[in-house]
Design brief:
By secondary structure, this protein is α+β, with helices and mostly antiparallel strands. It has a single domain, classed as Glutaredoxin (3-Layer(aba) Sandwich). A hairpin with a 4-residue loop joins strand 5 and strand 6. The two termini are 22 Å apart.
Length: 97
């Protein structure tokens, strides 16, 4: 089962990121454990310095932006294929991750 973490303490954009993640999971018909990680030290332990952050199976995929549902779907698909390092462009921040 996939483990997805929404990283960010008191982040006002975290609810939108979580909604995008849940929509992506629903559209892909994939079950995952989705958790909000709100303590700053836990977020920092992932190496995330800008919130919100998104980690899939402990691999940070985005930070400091709210990725689109399509980007999240591509990251989930890559994780399910066993390719957590697969490069996907985040349209929100235009960074390849």
């Amino acid at each position: 089962m996939l483990e997805i973490q929404i990283l960010g303490e008191g982040c006002p954009r975290c609810p939108q990121l979580e909604a995008n993640v849940r929509e992506a999971l629903c559209e892909l018909n994939v079950e995952a454990k989705v958790e909000r990680v709100s303590s700053w030290w836990a977020t920092f332990s992932y190496g995330v310095l800008a919130v919100p952050g998104l980690a899939i199976n402990k691999h940070v995929r985005a930070q400091g932006c709210v990725p689109s549902k399509d980007a999240i779907m591509a990251w989930i698909d890559a994780a399910l294929r066993g390719e957590p390092e697969a490069e996907v462009v985040c349209e929100t921040c235009s960074i390849r991750r």
